[in-house]
Design brief:
Strands 1, 2, 3, 4, 5, 6 and 7 form a seven-stranded mixed β-sheet that branches. A two-stranded antiparallel ribbon has the order 8-9. The protein folds into three domains: 60 residues; 98 residues, OB fold (Dihydrolipoamide Acetyltransferase, E2P) (Beta Barrel); 281 residues, no CATH class. Strand 2 and strand 3 form a beta hairpin. Helices cover 62% and strands 10% of the residues.
């Protein structure tokens, strides 16, 4: 599995297309000589070739790139939910008359929805990178290499197109968003919607800056906690029908939930892991967290190899891997000096922050030093905001005074979270040179590789001796 994942990652970096030929030869050699390491090498080469083929296919299909700098008339369909921000609204458009996919930027407010068929005229441009952040590579994971900012003309030809499930998911999201915004003031409503649905781009500039400076932006991204809640709720509703019904119900709910919040890498990773855990429960087999996170990465890499190089995926993957591998070590260390429940929270927070340091440094050139303490204070607030926010999403449909009364707990927790972000956001970030982030990344990968394959480390920190615990109870 590691060889497959490594091949997909390396394939996204480019290289020689003949790796598929080499992979075929090595694979044949594995069958002839029956050597395990030859089979591993064959998997790596074939995965590398697959990722390169997907990337080359994407480049060949994108004919819009040849029109950079030109003003053209385009006809296409909106393929994403509108990303509404303070000053502009962004959608991805699949263009039909000049095959390709582009990012269309409109002035807010913009009367445009997912599935709309549109005609527009504008100048095709290349995305601009922001400092150390490679915005072009970020967009490539969504199969986009060009953008059109503020088109000269825009006509909505028809509405109601696109996938039926996605349209239903968008309607549900609009309903829940509106209920929260009716019941809570800004920015509390936007923070609550961010925690529950991952919609954070409408945040005021000062609020967004506070969350970024304090290292709390990840709280406004849907991930494992949200997926776990969905699976728990579905499990409680379907448990009388058996484990298979619970898994099928959870899978359907996860697909709809992912469609509703958007197909972002963190939620996709969490959803894939959740689906695998549910399947393991149906089959009655134990799921190793290390295998789960690697398998989730491989599945996402097979679906879209470019996703493995996206910053959001790398942050999610690194934080998850850091918690799985490093948190048990820190728990054993911190438990000697602090109360065990506090040691658990502290270990998870520190492990995640250490793991994402190379990614943050490489992508943004800085690291929020306040993130360690800010997360320690903010993390316990999130489950309460999710619970009270969910109540607000449902009761907001009543409107008026009743909705605002039910929203008071969410308002109080949201206010506390805003204060935490604001206080710790005053602490300046520290610059991380590119060379330092690269060295830290290599060290983290080497350490993670050793932790994954070391039997001694696994027995000491990652495996539970159930027989011993039973004998102690007896």
């Amino acid at each position: 599995m590691v060889a497959l994942l490594l091949g997909l990652v390396l394939g996204g970096l480019g290289g020689l297309p003949q790796t598929v030929f080499l992979g075929g030869i090595v694979l044949a050699g594995a069958f002839v000589f029956r050597k395990f390491w030859i089979g591993i090498l064959a998997v790596l080469l074939l995965a590398n070739a697959y990722a390169q083929w997907r990337h080359l296919h994407f480049l060949q299909q994108d004919q819009l790139f040849a029109h950079v700098g030109e003003t053209v008339f385009l006809s296409g369909r909106v393929q994403s939910f509108p990303d509404v921000r303070e000053n502009n609204t962004r959608v991805y458009v699949s263009v039909q008359n000049i095959p390709g996919r582009t990012l269309l930027i409109l002035r807010t407010p913009a009367d445009i929805e997912y599935g709309d068929r549109i005609h527009f005229t504008g100048t095709v441009r290349l995305p601009t990178n922001f400092g150390d952040f490679d915005y072009r590579k970020y967009l490539e994971q969504f199969r986009v290499r060009t953008l059109i900012r503020f088109p000269d003309s825009l006509e909505i030809v028809s509405r109601g197109g696109g996938n039926l499930i996605l349209r239903a998911a968008k309607s549900a999201r609009n309903f829940f968003e509106q209920n929260v915004k009716t019941s809570l003031p800004v920015p509390h409503s936007l923070v609550t919607v961010g925690v529950l649905l991952g919609v954070k781009n409408e945040l005021p500039e000062w609020t967004e800056r506070d969350f970024k400076q304090s290292g709390l932006t990840h709280l406004l991204v849907v991930s494992g906690t949200n997926v776990t809640i969905v699976m728990v709720v579905v499990g409680l509703l379907f448990r009388r029908f058996g484990r298979r019904a619970v898994w099928i119900g959870s899978l359907v709910a996860l697909i709809f939930f992912v469609a509703m919040v958007g197909f972002d890498p963190p939620v996709l990773r969490a959803a894939v892991m959740g689906g695998i855990v549910g399947l393991s429960a149906v089959l009655g087999r134990f799921s190793d967290a290390r295998n789960l996170v690697l398998l989730a990465a491989v599945i996402l890499g097979l679906l879209s190899p470019g996703m493995l190089h996206g910053v959001s995926f790398l942050l999610s993957f690194a934080a998850t891997l850091g918690i799985i591998l490093l948190a048990p070590v820190l728990i054993a260390l911190f438990s000697r000096v602090v109360w065990k429940p506090l040691a658990l929270v502290l270990a998870v927070t520190v492990a995640a922050q250490i793991a994402v340091l190379p990614v943050l440094g490489g992508a943004f050139g800085e690291f929020p030093v306040a993130g360690f303490l800010a997360n320690l204070v903010a993390e316990p607030l999130v489950p309460f905001l999710m619970a009270f926010g969910a109540v607000t999403m449902l009761t907001g449909a009543f409107g008026g005074l009743l909705a605002k009364i039910f929203a008071i707990p969410a308002l109080m927790v949201g206010e506390a979270l805003l204060w935490v972000a604001h206080i710790f956001g005053q602490i300046p970030t520290i610059p991380v040179p590119s060379l330092v982030s690269q060295v830290l990344g290599i060290l983290f990968l080497l350490a993670a590789g050793w932790m994954l394959f070391s039997r001694r480390f696994s027995q000491k920190f990652l495996e539970v001796d159930f027989s011993e615990s039973k004998s102690q109870k007896a």
